[in-house]
Design goal:
alpha/beta, 2 domains, 40% helix, 12 helices, Aspartate Aminotransferase, domain 2
């Protein structure tokens, strides 16, 4: 019998089953409306693609340093100054193979097997799966709609002792944004309890109210200094519309960044070089990127209004990212069953909530509005018709 590690036995992404079935139906000629995919429907910015075209055939595009292209690391520090008025140094930044690479490298650098790290539910499943694969104990903390799916210090206190906490703002799947005062309180609490804080900021730039500050900009304002690091992870996938290019970054204190760089030397050698050049040029394409955000804003309105018209009005605030987290418990079906029915019966692909909350996710569906307005309108009409005729 083949020997496999227990660490590799992590749950699958159930949305991948939806995507696989959607592809099968499309191959048979069915028209499928995609509200399951968590990625922009736009390509990388035009100016960035033009810059890459100029390199192909003229540049060797060999390895960069493990921490990334020096010009890109420098430009990331300038981004923090321009967008957040926050000064960081180049030695605080490590470019990675997507935010996914950032999490694996950061978790390896920060935690030893057996240590305890809080992950919030609902939340992005790769946090807990990555930790489990590394032998780190993922401690789930259930978030409440009553608190707009934001973590409370009392919930965290009940989990002590802890070694780490992972939060996202804006969040996938709820779209929740943690306000500045609450993020400052989280930082202060973590430092006071010697808990390492990892903040996922990959949806920064896609918000529909007050823009959240970077956690890096709140460090000097937070009391209770300890040695516990604050690690910020970001990516070129969402706001910069470069999912398939696989470029992300970690920004943290220099000692942690140095460890991450050394791990990267062995695990990935370096991030993809052509992708790093594309990412560097993407910083010069802000007008195009902001036009994408304006489209997401319109799409958000279409989807929220359409779901409400269909009777699906128990949703999270959706203040950022491009998702709506919807309570479908009134329908009396599990989310996997419901997603399968919607796909088969009306051609609307959605993500079952079990991906994001192992205990309560059967009562929720995640809708993505990263696609086109016409697709969203048609999907809402189909859902309203289904609700009127099938429930």
């Amino acid at each position: 019998m083949v020997q496999l590690s227990d660490r590799s036995d992590v749950p699958p992404f159930y949305v991948m089953e939806v995507m696989r079935e959607a592809e099968r139906l499309e191959s048979e000629g069915r028209d499928i409306l995609h509200l399951e995919v968590g990625q922009p429907s736009t390509a990388a910015p035009a100016g960035a693609l033009e810059a890459v075209e100029g390199l192909l055939g003229t540049d060797r595009l060999g390895y960069t340093g493990a921490a990334g292209l020096p010009a890109l690391r420098k430009r990331i520090t300038q981004w923090y100054q321009w967008r957040y008025e926050t000064d960081i140094d180049v030695d605080q930044v490590v470019v990675t193979t997507g935010a996914s690479g950032s999490f694996v490298l950061s978790f390896l650098a920060l935690f030893d097997p057996g240590q305890r790290v809080v992950v919030l539910e609902p939340g992005y499943p790769c946090y807990r799966n990555d930790l489990a694969a590394l032998g780190v104990s993922a401690v789930p903390v259930a978030l409440s709609a009553d608190n707009d799916y934001r973590p409370s210090l009392s919930d965290l206190e009940s989990c002590l002792p802890l070694d780490g906490l992972v939060v996202a703002s804006p969040s996938n799947p709820t779209g929740t944004v943690i306000p500045e005062d609450q993020m400052r309180n989280l930082i202060s609490w973590c430092r006071g309890n010697n808990v390492t804080l990892i903040v996922d900021e990959i949806y920064h730039g896609i918000t529909f109210g007050d823009a959240p500050p970077t956690a890096l900009g709140l460090l000097d304002q937070s009391p209770g200094e300890t040695d516990a690091p604050v690690v910020v992870i970001n990516s070129f996938s969402k706001y910069f519309s470069m999912t398939g290019w696989r470029v992300g970054w970690v920004a943290t204190q220099p000692a942690v960044a140095a460890r991450i760089e050394r791990l990267s030397q062995s695990l990935t050698i370096a991030p993809p070089t052509v992708s790093q050049h594309c990412a560097l040029a993407a910083f010069d394409c802000i007008d195009e990127l902001e036009a994408n955000v304006a489209r997401y804003r319109d799409n958000r309105r279409i989807l929220l209004e359409g779901l409400a018209s269909a009777g699906l009005d128990k949703t999270a605030p959706a203040d950022g990212a491009f998702y709506v987290w919807c309570d479908v418990s009134l329908l009396g079906h599990g989310s996997q069953h419901l997603a399968a029915r919607w796909l088969d019966e009306i051609g609307v692909a959605t993500t079952p909530g079990i991906d994001f909350d192992q205990r309560r996710g059967s009562d929720f569906i995640r809708f993505s509005y990263a696609g086109g307005a016409d697709e969203l309108e048609r999907a809402c009409q189909a859902l309203a018709h289904w609700m009127n005729t099938s429930t």
